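Quick review question:
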């Protein structure tokens, strides 16, 4: 009980400190002659940064419930390991980000994953983060969309647990049609050459 009260006090203190900092900044700008406290130019730039646009609407293609077939590849292996999963993607925070929850199995163990993706108006890039119960790290990605081929291409870093380090990875997501899309992931092999380590096929649930 004491621990809960202490945590609540800490949270309230942090919120109060943040609010105080914002109020101080606005007061400083007000003292410098800015009407209403905040610089209109700053307000305009922030509104531009925070407002979803056409680039966000491209992600509508991923919204919905999907059945997945997952293939994992290893260099030299005679055949990929195959499993199935389901995922549901939906808009959050007023159309700014797509959140997807994935559930399935991997090598006989339950698999659960959480992804977020969106379009960063400042970077002019699609951005994403992935985390799951098969690791303790976050996979961050940045990429672009080719409207002509309906393809997202992302660069990220993923864990190489044998090497004990994160290595460069590349993923390619292609919208096949309204009810199908694919994702392929590539990483360096033992010889340093890139190979496809994972392939996922998504089919919209009806």
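Suggested answer, residue by residue:
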């Amino acid at each position: 009980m004491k621990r809960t009260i202490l945590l609540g006090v800490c949270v309230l203190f942090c919120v109060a400190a943040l609010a105080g900092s914002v109020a101080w900044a606005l007061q400083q700008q007000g003292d410098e002659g800015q009407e209403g406290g905040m610089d209109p130019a700053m307000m305009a730039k922030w509104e531009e940064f925070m407002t979803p646009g056409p680039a966000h609407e491209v992600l509508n293609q991923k919204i919905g419930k999907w059945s997945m077939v997952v293939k994992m590849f290893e260099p030299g292996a005679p055949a990929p390991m195959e499993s199935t999963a389901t995922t549901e993607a939906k808009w959050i925070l007023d159309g700014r980000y797509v959140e997807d929850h994935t559930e399935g199995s991997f090598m006989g163990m339950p698999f659960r994953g959480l992804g977020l993706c969106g379009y960063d108006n400042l970077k002019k890039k699609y951005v994403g983060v992935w985390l799951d119960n098969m690791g303790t790290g976050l996979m961050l990605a940045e990429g672009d969309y080719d409207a002509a081929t309906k393809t997202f291409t992302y660069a990220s870093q993923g864990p190489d647990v044998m090497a004990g380090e994160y290595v460069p990875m590349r993923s390619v997501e292609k919208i096949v049609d309204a009810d199908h899309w694919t994702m392929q992931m590539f990483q360096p092999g033992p010889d340093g050459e890139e190979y496809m380590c994972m392939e996922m096929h998504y089919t919209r649930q009806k």
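Why it works: The chain has two domains: 2-50, 55-204. The chain is about 20% helix and 50% strand.
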